[in-house]
Amino acid sequence: MSLHELSLRELGEGLRAKKFSSRELTQHYLGRIGRHDPALNSYITVTADRALAQADAADARLAAGQGSALTGIPLAQKDIFCTSGVRTSCGSKMLDKFIAPYDATIVRKLDGAGMVMLGKANMDEFAMGSSNETSFYGPVKNPWDVERVPGGSSGGSVAAVAAGLAPVATATDTGGSIRQPAALTNLTGIKPTYGRVSRYGMIAFASSLDQAGVVARSAEDAAVVLQAMSGFDPLDSTSVERPVDDYVGALGASIRGLRIGLPKEYFAEGLDPGARACIEAAVKVFEGLGASVREVSLPNAPLSVPTYYVVAPAEASSNLARFDGVRYGHRAEGVHTLEELYKRSRGEGFGAEVQRRIMIGTYVLSHGYYDAYYLKAQKVRRLIYDDFRRAFGEVDLILGPTAQSVAIKLGDKSDDPVAMYLNDIYTIAANLAGIPAMSLPAGFHQDLPIGLQLMGNFFDEGRMLNAAHQYQQATDFHKRWPKGFA
Ligand code: GLN
Q1: Atom of ligand 1 at shortest range from CA of 130
Q2: Is 405 among the residues known to form the active site?
């Protein structure tokens, strides 16, 4: 087997047994990026020198018998995380020249664990999008069909991992940006409970929804990295002060007796029959593993997209006010007044989708509309949360589709924002409620991957990851590689 086919556990074992060094592994990945990334555009910045220096430091730690399970293993960081001394663009012209002066907490933690950062992954501008077509650096292509989108906004993270240009990557999910692209590229992606992973140094889109997580080639790989990223951070005021469960240790337990709920609203009109067939087959696998399956209802789930498109733009309009051309980011030239500086810097620095969100957000927060839109959306958000509380009184996990169908062709929906927004119809509710959720490979339709979504109760990541792991012991969809990237 080639190095890029190994799991994180196998990579760790190989490094410890000196079958290969971290430098060799890093060079292997840098070589693959050089060969394959021109077709995919999954990286905005490749940090080869920094990576090799980190690899040498990891080799020294390993030689001294030190380090963690992740020491010497490469990864890609979504370009939304601040990396000291390295450009952090967030996919935007606004930050094209921004060199972060500090590391995001998760960058610090993964560096501390000895991981090797290969580079910064492409993404939709400010994480707004479902197809990775809004990046200032151009669209990312799906390794399963380069004429198709990889999903978004973490499209660079998933394309890199799916094509073997990184063994694992970080990602973020505000309304589905970990799970939906994972589904469209045959990966396992997890968004943990809101507050479980620090948001410090993660460029804010919609602060009450944003959550960092992992995209990987298996639940086991995802568990190892999530373990290292999670935990209380005094630098993030919404970080939860609660010990991190042993996700890796939870893998392997039988799921006999696990109660799984199928929300009937997730199997209604709009779900492609090909995707439905994959999900139904997966339900049978879970039953075969001893889980009991019943229908549940999330009656307010159909309201999640309109609720999100009030709350998320409102928060975005406030968060993105900091990009004013004065403190950092793009500054227009040849301006004469302060107002002109603001207008032109923001007009030139932000792309169309970002500007649209800022305008919607400013509108719904403005006097006279606040009660009708923003306050109403907050109330509906509570109802969506209440639906999950009720459902988790009856079941342990909720199972459904991640996306309505397979990846769309590039350009198919890029002129129709509402059609694009509906892509996240199954994923957004988890962000509004704050619960953990993940996507895992559940088969293929027209030779393209279909993802299965699991949602768990607050802080139940361990149980969810183990259920995914058991499913992956019984299936091999997650082991398939896209042709051309073997
Ligand atoms: N597609 C959604 C949006 O554009 C979600 C993005 C995300 O999760 N970052 O807002």
Answers
A1: 1
A2: no
Q: Which residue CA neighbors atom 10 of ligand 1 most closely?
A: 128
Instruction: Tell me the DSSP string of 357-384.
Output: HHHHHHHHHSTTTIIIIIIHHHHHHHHH
pLDDT in the model for residue 377: 97
Quote the CA–CA distance of 6 and 28 in Å, as a whole number: 13
The closest of 192, 103, 262, 259 to 434, measured between CA atoms, is 192
Q: Give 69-100 pLDDT, tens digit per residue.
A: 999 999 999 999 999 999 999 999 999 999 99
Q: How confident is the prediction for the chain on average, in pLDDT?
A: 97
Report the nearest atom of ligand 1 relative to the CA of 357: 10
Q: How far is the CA of 210 from the centre of ligand 1 (A)?
A: 9
Span 174-212, pLDDT tens digits: 999 999 999 999 999 999 999 999 999 999 999 999 999
- Say which of 21, 22, 42, 78 is annotated catalytic: 78
The catalytically annotated residue of 21, 89, 130, 177 is: 177
Domains of the chain listed by start with CATH number: 3-254 (3.90.1300.10), 321-376 (no CATH)
Two tokens, residue 273: 């029959």
Which atom of ligand 1 lies nearest, measured to the CA of 423?
1
Residue burial 20-49, b: 16+ Cβ < 10 Å; e: rest:
bbbbebbbbbbebbeebbeebbbbbbbbee
Q: Which of the residues 153, 218, 230, 317 is marked catalytic?
A: 153
Tokens 């077709």 -> residue: 39
Question: d(Cα 181, Cα 351) in Å, to the nearest integer?
Answer: 21
Contact 174, 127 (CB under 8 A): yes
C-alpha 486 – ligand 1 centre gap (Å): 30
- CA pair distance 51, 47, nearest whole angstrom: 6
The strand pairing partners of 169, in sequence order, are 76, 215
Q: What is the pLDDT of residues 299-319, one digit of tens each?
A: 999 999 999 999 999 999 999
Q: Give catalytic status of residue 177 as yes or no.
A: yes
